[in-house]
Design goal:
There is one protein chain. This protein is an alpha+beta fold and 332 residues long. It is 27% helix and 30% strand. The protein has a 6-stranded mixed beta sheet. The radius of gyration is 26 Å and the shape is globular.
């Protein structure tokens, strides 16, 4: 009856090899602090905007109303780049409007949204959705860019990030169309997904319900009303962090600051990482065990392999119970 001993030793060796494919943090929870902030073009003090962001130490920041060489109100600076430099974060800017500079040699005047990240931004796009221009006296709904999508590598996990700024007018029809078009880009989130933005609508507004059904509002009722606008005496909650089911919300807050006419929203999240390498490790042991069982069955007591196989049906290795790449973690 030496076969069980030999098989046990073989499987132990396989377990060591398989576990070598796992990083120490595989399966661990990854903290992620995020912020969404309508900065009102720096509100005349871009350094104050940087200070307000720095005070919360976020990993990801979604900004709305960002000027890039846009106007005298912001000294024609590239606010996205300047904030990225001051905060030492990667930056991507998605324009909504673009016009020629005042002089032929001047860069284009642009206004839109931006993403700041402490983590590598792997890829990004600027999607077109329906908008009612603020740069025309009698606008009609028309396709314009400014719906930012990015993929960010958060400690080995690819997180899909979206940033938007919806129409502000009382008539909800443009926002309704914008939500419909954004959902087409978002799809059914099979990977960790975040949407940030100034939606210009309260949580109960009918036009944003399809969005809230696809993604979860990260603001917990226990954190208070979450009012963000106007900054001096907030009466409305129109700034949001929306998350897919892959996240757990730890806490949320609205920092008090007058750096803009909105207050920012800061949310502490947790994402659970279970890497594909864990699945590979499981596969290595499974294939090795099956092969060894077949080999031993030809030369040893047939009961031994079957008994060991029954024991193997309950996972006993360092990578046990790897059932989901991204398990569902409900929002508190």
């Amino acid at each position: 009856m030496r076969a069980p001993v030999r098989l046990a030793g073989f499987l132990a060796l396989l377990a060591v090899v398989a576990c070598a494919h796992l990083s120490p943090a595989a399966g661990s929870e990854i903290p992620l602090r995020v912020m969404t902030y309508n900065i009102r073009s720096g509100n005349g003090n871009l350094a104050g905007t940087a200070d307000a962001i720095r005070a919360s130490a976020p990993d990801l920041v979604a900004l709305q109303e960002v000027d890039v060489h846009w106007a005298e109100r912001s000294n024609f600076v590239d606010q996205a780049t300047v904030l990225g430099q001051q905060l030492q974060m990667q930056v991507r800017f998605a324009r909504i409007y673009q016009f020629a500079g005042a002089q032929p040699q001047d860069p284009p005047r642009e206004f839109g949204v931006a993403l700041l990240s402490k983590f590598p931004i792997l890829d990004w796009s600027n999607h077109i959705i329906t908008r009612l221009s603020t740069q025309e006296s009698n606008p009609v709904p028309a396709p314009l860019p400014g719906f930012l999508e990015a993929k960010v590598d958060v400690r080995g996990v690819t997180v899909h990030v979206f940033n938007t700024h919806l129409d502000y007018r009382a008539d909800p029809r443009v926002r309704e169309q914008q939500v419909k078009e954004m959902l087409a880009f978002i799809g059914e989130p099979s990977a960790p997904t975040l949407l940030f933005g100034d939606l210009n609508a309260p949580p109960e507004a009918s036009e944003i319900q399809p969005l809230l059904e696809r993604l979860h509002d990260a603001w917990p009722a226990s954190a208070g009303p979450g009012l963000t606008d106007p900054a001096d005496e907030p009466r409305k909650r129109i700034d949001y962090v929306l998350v897919s089911k892959h996240f757990r919300v730890r806490s949320a807050s609205v920092p008090v600051t007058l750096a803009s006419d909105h207050r920012p929203v800061v949310v502490d999240l947790v994402i659970r990482r279970i890497e594909q390498r864990a699945k590979l490790a499981t596969s290595i042991v499974k294939r090795g065990a099956e092969s060894r069982l077949a080999s031993l069955a030809e030369s040893a007591d047939r009961k031994a392999p079957s008994q060991i196989a029954a024991k193997l049906s309950a996972p006993r290795f360092c990578f046990v119970d790897v059932r989901y790449q991204y398990p569902t973690i409900p929002v508190d």
